[in-house]
Design a protein that fits this description.
The chain is α+β, with helices and mostly antiparallel strands. The chain is built from two helices and six strands; from the N terminus they run H-H-E-E-E-E-E-E. A two-stranded antiparallel sheet has the order 1-2. The model has no long low-confidence stretch (mean pLDDT 74).
């Protein structure tokens, strides 16, 4: 009985602590004040060529290995907001698509 009481008290305490975090505001906040996620996007080109593919096969100077020879779109491993609608992003690990 004592163990059951501890379990119930623990569950109620966890719910009480989590409820402010899980609460949904009655009105949505103004995106200009709190920010807003945009729709996912991908670069339209790889090396200036339009493609819907994530990676394209392409031999490059210095590719002296038996692995894949591909060039891929960046994954935005690093990103910086430049101001206004301008964002710069790049793949944080250069040329890892061939690893």
């Amino acid at each position: 009985m004592r163990g059951l009481r501890r379990l119930i008290v623990s569950v109620l305490a966890a719910v009480a602590l989590a409820s402010p975090v899980l609460a949904v505001p009655a009105q949505a906040a103004d995106p200009s004040q709190v920010g807003q996620w945009g729709a996912p996007f991908a670069e339209p080109t790889i090396n200036g060529e339009a493609t819907d593919e994530y990676c394209v096969e392409e031999s490059q100077e210095g590719d002296d290995h038996d692995g894949k020879h591909v060039t891929c779109k960046p994954t935005a491993g690093s990103m910086a907001i430049l101001g206004g609608d301008d964002v710069v992003y790049w793949d944080a690990l250069e040329d890892t698509e061939e690893v």
